[in-house]
From TrEMBL:
SMART domains: PYNP_C (SM00941). This is Pyrimidine-nucleoside phosphorylase. Belongs to the thymidine/pyrimidine-nucleoside phosphorylase family. It catalyses: uridine + phosphate = alpha-D-ribose 1-phosphate + uracil; 2'-deoxyuridine + phosphate = 2-deoxy-alpha-D-ribose 1-phosphate + uracil; thymidine + phosphate = 2-deoxy-alpha-D-ribose 1-phosphate + thymine.
Length: 441
């Protein structure tokens, strides 16, 4: 087999065989295929695409390039959740404890934030002492004792994807459906949970800006998951504005805990109940989503969801006094109130730009070496479709550097677009993609 012939085949719009796909992934990962040939092949794939079978084969080859995390030591049907990335998205921190409190093991290997999107591990590290690096034995032990574990990826997961993604990034070949879907799914499927729900975000703060593109990505990922033998479904949800009101690590953790106590923002609660009830059905804990939702509402009311969050923090050695008393979470020195200069309705609130503001305040990472200011961030007092009066508070900036805070204040004045009421009210959940098809709401 020669890489030249494989490039030529894809250039001429032909289908690659399983053997050819395995060959390229293996030889590229071990350095036997140079970047210039892989770049040419990626560009041919970009233009001529891959079919379903090729995409699944590519995913399998990337999974097999590294370690596979075996979760068979954990009792029960294990569930996982993955978001394609958003701003202020604490759904994992709400859904995880909720389903675990219902007796369903929730095991998630999470990531850190980069650029304008936050990462669950950074949020959890707002607690003093919280340990995200667990070895396999600790992970399995914690999950068997508490039904929940949220930790970092210590194993060597899909190294082929790591190398390919970096190459795609510099050769303008990221934006191909098969390449994106296989990249995301190779990292998910290498970790052995039984059922997965994908939260595909669309809007200003998301990777996908249009509904049609998000549906296609969701379909491609569901096909891969099902093709690999895992129950996989995808929800398509709104990331035109941030989720909830808090953006920033400790602020978001506080919001997640309040939501688990039944006092959270409505959008965050509704998306969490939607995803949580689907997971309970996938795990066969309940038969219908309606039952699932009732159960989740009950465990919020009884305090069991909150207790489970506390248990998660305790088992991963975080300071639970900060869960019991939210005033003990990291706090910033200054709070700036951003006032409206107009009256009207909030028309839009660009999620990516809000994420950039939080990043500027120190809540995020410019690169993987950046350190995080856990206390800083933004509270969106007003959100899209809310009515505002002149001089009313739009947002609060939590910061430790007044100069940066003032700069963000100016930016937020522009990010809040205020005018007449939007004709169509905003939508939180656009649809659901399963192996049976697409359902739009
Ligand atoms: N995220 C990934 O992990 N891979 C892609 O290709 C795009 C987004
Ligand atoms: Ca939030």
């Amino acid at each position: 087999m020669r890489i030249y012939d494989i490039i030529k085949k894809k250039r001429d719009k032909e289908e690659l065989t399983t053997e050819e796909i395995n060959f390229i992934v293996e030889k590229y990962t071990n350095g036997e295929i140079p970047d210039y040939q892989m770049s040419a092949l990626l560009m041919a794939i970009y233009f001529n695409k891959m079919n379903k079978r090729e995409t699944l084969d590519l995913t399998k080859a990337m999974i097999n390039s590294g370690d596979i995390v075996d979760l068979s030591g954990i009792n029960g049907i294990k569930v996982d959740k993955h978001s394609t990335g958003g701003v202020g998205d604490t759904v994992t921190l709400i859904v995880g404890p909720m389903v675990a409190a219902c007796g369903v093991p929730f095991v998630k290997m999470s990531g850190r934030g980069l650029g304008h999107t936050g990462g669950t591990l950074d949020k959890l590290e707002s607690f003093r002492g919280f340990r995200v690096e667990l070895d396999d034995e600790e992970l399995i032990n914690n999950a068997n004792q508490t039904n929940i574990c949220i930790c970092s990826q210590t194993a060597n997961i899909a190294p082929a994807d790591k190398k390919l993604y970096a190459l795609r990034d510099v050769t303008a070949t990221v934006e191909n459906l098969s390449l994106i879907a296989s990249s995301i799914m190779s990292k998910k499927l290498a970790i052995g949970s039984n059922a997965i729900i994908l939260d595909v975000k669309i809007g200003s703060g998301a990777f996908m800006k249009k509904l049609d593109d998000a549906i296609e990505l969701a379909k491609a990922m569901v096909d891969i998951g099902q093709g690999y033998g895992r129950e996989t479904i995808a929800v398509i949800s709104n990331m035109d504005e941030p989720l909830g009101r808090a953006v920033g690590n400790a602020l978001e953790v506080k919001e997640a805990i309040e939501t688990l106590q039944g006092n959270g923002p409505e959008d965050l609660l509704q998306l969490s109940l939607f995803i949580g009830s689907k997971l309970l059905v996938l795990a066969k804990r309940v038969e219908t989503e309606i039952e699932g939702r009732e159960l989740l509402e009950q465990i919020i009311k009884s305090g069991a969801a909150y207790d489970k969050f506390k248990e998660l923090v305790k088992y991963q050695e975080g300071d639970i006094s900060q869960v019991e008393n939210l005033n003990l979470l990291p706090k910033s020195e200054y709070i700036i109130q951003v006032k409206s200069t107009k009256s009207g309705y909030v028309k839009s609130l660009n999620a990516e730009e809000i994420g950039q503001c939080a990043l500027l305040l120190g809540a995020g990472r410019e690169n993987m070496e950046s350190t995080i200011d856990y206390s800083s961030g933004i509270i969106l007092v007003k959100k899209v479709d809310d009515k505002v009066e002149i001089d009313e508070t739009l947002a609060e900036i939590h910061c430790n550097d007044m100069e940066l805070g003032k700069e963000v204040e100016k930016r937020l004045q522009n990010i809040y677009v205020i005018g007449t009421r939007n004709e169509e009210p905003k939508k939180l959940i656009y649809g659901l993609v399963t192996k049976d098809g697409v359902e739009l709401y």
